[in-house]
Amino acid sequence: MARTRVAVLLSGRGTNLQSLIDAHQDDYEIVLVASNIVDAPGLGIAKAAGIATFAQSHKALDRAAFDTLIDGQLRAHGVEAIALAGYMRILSDGFVAGWAGRMVNIHPSLLPLYKGLDTHARAIEAGDAQAGCSIHIVTAGLDDGPVIARASVPIMPWDTPDTLAARVLIEEHRLYPRALAQWVRTLGA
Fold first, then answer.
1. Quick one: which of 17, 19, 130, 181 has the most CB atoms within 10 Å?
2. Rounded to two decimals, what is the model's pTM?
3. 31-61: per-residue pLDDT in tens?
């Protein structure tokens, strides 16, 4: 069975990209890493792994034009599914519709709690006993699609947003490769 051709979109360090690469999954092959930040460290991780990259600043283009540019790159590389991994751009409705059901995101909270930013601080401030990460299908609503996998960690009395984020990130690295592999198997069904 052929592996699903996946693109990873990122804006930062690329630690989740590294976990996807290190997993050596039989179900997917990362064929492109694209970023809206031209010097995102994650691009270096992709290049070191021999994965094609595309980087373009979004600042000179409106949202729809930028997403059209990214879409062209995805299609030129034969991408079949997209994994967002720290991609800090809200996608246009047209882009989301064009990839409907074929795009997932990892988010650092137990969705539907704490959509958007500052998830760890918000969980601590709320007095939650647990925090974690969720992988969800991307829809037009911010962090609003169906959750396909999640992992949790306890919030400790001494936690700060940074200490909690570090523990959640460990779970993200464990969860994302496994969940992505399971999800891409459903695309061919």
1. 17
2. 0.95
3. 999 999 999 999 999 999 999 999 999 998 9
